[in-house]
Amino acid sequence: MILALTYLNLPYMIMPLYSVFKDMPKNIIEASSDLGYNRFQTLFKVVIPYSFKAILSGLSLIFLASATTFVISDKLLPNPAQLQTVGSLINQYSDPSNAYELSTGSVLVLVVSAIFIGCYAMINFVPRLIIRLAATKSRKGVKNE
Fold first, then answer.
1. Cα distance between residue 45 and residue 97, in whole Å
2. Is 0.85 surpassed by the pTM of this model?
3. Which portions of the chain are predicted below pLDDT 50?
């Protein structure tokens, strides 16, 4: 099952990374080696921060695609209780003939979406807010002197 989901969702991660790495200037990597970074330091301190937005967009695409794949888990797993994905759980709880199950499925969709949006906000906007607050504090300190 993991192999099937990886095979289906791998292009959603590769395409954003490919577009970023294709346009990445080669002099950035040369400059990092001139500054004394080895290959691993270049990867973690230069390449990953440069491609962070592409990694984040690829992860969001994979999450959204894998959250809705309930057919794959139904077809590949002989026992449905063996492993449940988020998509199969939502499909199980969204029976339109039963109002309770439909509301449970809707709440599950909202909770998963809220968790994803919250994680995205924590990764993107909280560091910017902290930097902005630190900059305003440093400006106030300069004005008082």
1. 54
2. no
3. none
